[in-house]
Amino acid sequence: MQTLKKISLWIIYAGAALALAAPLFVNNSFFFPFIATKAFLFRIVVEIMLLAFLYLALVDEQYRPKRNILTIILGLFIIGAFISSFLGVNFYGSFWGDMERSDGLFLLLHLAAFFVILTSVIKTEKTWARFFDISLVVALLVSLFAVAQSLKLESVLATSGDRADATFGNASFLAGYILFQIAFAAYLFWKRNSKIARIYYGTLAALFIWVIFATQTRGALVALVGSIVFSSLLLVWTKRHIPIIRKSALGAIILVVAAVGLLIVFRDRPFVKNSPMLNKLTVFSFTDRTTETRIAAWRAGIEGWKDKPIFGYGLENYNIVFNKNFPPIIYKDEGSVVWFDRAHNVVVDRAVTTGIVGLLLYLGFIFYPAYYMLKRLRGNEEKQVPAIIFISLAAAYFVQDLFVFESIGTYVFLFFAWAFMASNFLPKFDVPKILTSKKLWLGALAVYLLLLGPIMWKGTLEPAKINLAAAVALRSNPVEDNFYVIFDRFKDVLEKENYGQNEYRIQFIDFIGTQLGEQGPINPEVFTIVTYAEEQLEKLISEKPDDAKNYLLAARFYNTTRDAVPGEEKIRIERALSYIPKLQELTPTRPHGPQEAGYSYLYLYEDYKEAGDAKQAEDSAKLAEEFFLKTIELNSEVVESYINLVRLYFMQGRNGEIADLIDEMEIAGANYKQAKHLTRMLGLAKTARDFDWISFFTEELTKVEPDNVDAWIDFALSYAYRGERAEAIAIADVIKGFGGNYIAEAEAFIENVNSGFYEKNPLK
């Protein structure tokens, strides 16, 4: 028995260490590798730890959980989250979460088990300190990845842009993780008295602070600065009788305030402007794109929360509320991020998904340890400094969480740090007698032994296996791999039931739409694949009938594949239109619904016009125009909406009305004078053989891209075909300036212009 007891203890210790090392694990073979790898690892580790813990609790009552307020709050929050999810939109989705976030009730149960195991098994500050050391070594390695990224050593671990994200794949997640590590380093700096140890922990803290700057995450930077000032004020209050501490704390406050002040004063200087880190700190505006988007997402969440204020919509259902109250201002162009599954604000997220009940319980879990320690700060001098460190950590974590959402990379350390506070600072009470019964723990162990295999397989191992297969399918190269082979890879994944299936379906349908869309009639052998994609669409909608994204996906799929099956062109367009009413019901303020409907009627207009059915063509064009105008009504700054009307007007021969659209864009502030927009409209004008508009768009395009020789050539030709020879020749002289073959070509063009060639041979 003693041997098994020791083994169980070591399993728990090893599991805790491995959980703290999770940030290092990234397997690029997974779909969403930065999150999935860590989530799969953490779940398996906790499930094994729980088995060892149940055995320990059975054979030795000292390892049975003790009751404390924080554990009770956590338990109530989980119960509340279950109620919210049961009464919410989709309990299955709320329980399992998805692959992208790996959140939900399933993760929450693992985090709670992790918390209870740590608070029950780790008995001494010395043991806790060892785990802090393990976490700091891991954080050091993670930080080295961030350093390598900042040095542009992409062979180590590439990042997108200038922001360091190390092994997290997201700069904000890395910054949140590092906040914990700064607190751990500060705690061990205080606890360890040797000079070498303090140099080591001080150096680590300095490195971690640099990493937060390297992430360029404003929320974390504000949290860091605020926590330094806050902790310094607490030190001044509690240690004012110790001159060196009082002076050091005041010095830290003055240093921080001075640094912030200098940044503000010199914010327009080159050394600040040219530094992404410093510039990020000094540039803040409510009209900044990121800020504007965040505030809009918060407002959408608050509006939705008003409909279900008590228990909310259930975990993982913020997207339903966001869609219902979609802020059109978020949609600027086809590249805009318009699908939010998180509010990027913990208060709004918790309020929407768990209601006011869940929000208050979650805030209670975050702040109760800080409240308890702050209330007793002057009473226990020995624990004043660590209490101040972890009170400041709670404040910092909450502040940065107001601008981002939680992930597996921060959750683990939140529950680890709070378990430490529960064990070392909070009072414990005896549990009811029934929870001390050996029979109860024997029964729990027996039941868990029976369930462990299925839990591991269905909860983690099988989803991980399917995830790997999905990643292979998703990363297939259509140019190099056989289309049917790629289809079979997807089909093998989709035939296996698991909680990531809907994400894989979306990827599959998007793949088929991309490969077959706008390609005209397809090989009859591919009909079965199209049918299979349609079946997956229906399953997707039937399993998540309240998700607007699925209806838009369906409408787009049928629109893009409208010509795929000969003889079914109009049927497929009508199918696309059949999804629009529900789409608009679920997200009435989103421009994408009327936009997609406009495309459908535009395609019908083309088909009816080609078939010679003037009445049906006219009716379809009228409806297309109405829907495109609706998108402008929802957000008048989106150039795409105007371009759709430009296309329609050219097709109808209403070229003169395009001038009104240009004027409307100018008035609305729709920035159409970008190369991508001008190039599209130029292409439409060339198709319509309208040389006046070709001249207009090419003139604007050459202003934006003066080195675009093709635009200059089109510009010259537009004047030549209109018989405006002097203007055409003047532009040809500009083309000569590009040198090389363009000189001879321009000379030949000028000869043709002077001979009247272009006037005699107009384009048809």
Write a structural description.
There is one protein chain. This protein is mostly helical. The chain has four domains: 65-431, no CATH class; 476-576; 589-672, Methane Monooxygenase Hydroxylase, Chain G, domain 1, CATH 1.20.58; 684-764, Serine Threonine Protein Phosphatase 5, Tetratricopeptide repeat. 72% of the residues lie in helices and 0% in strands. It is globular and about 100 Å long. The mean pLDDT is 92.
Secondary-structure map with pairings?
Elements: H1 2-20, H2 33-59, H3 69-87, H4 91-96, H5 105-121, H6 125-150, H7 171-191, H8 195-215, H9 218-238, H10 243-265, H11 270-273, H12 276-282, H13 289-305, H14 318-324, H15 346-375, H16 384-401, H17 408-424, H18 438-474, H19 483-494, H20 501-516, H21 527-543, H22 548-560, H23 569-578, H24 580-586, H25 592-611, H26 614-634, H27 639-652, H28 658-668, H29 675-687, H30 691-704, H31 709-721, H32 725-736, H33 741-755, H34 757-760
Helix pairs in contact: 1-2, 2-5, 2-18, 3-5, 3-15, 5-17, 6-7, 6-8, 7-8, 7-9, 7-16, 7-17, 9-10, 9-16, 13-14, 13-15, 15-16, 18-19, 19-20, 20-21, 20-22, 21-22, 22-23, 22-24, 22-25, 23-25, 24-25, 25-26, 25-27, 26-27, 27-28, 27-29, 29-30, 30-31, 31-32, 32-33
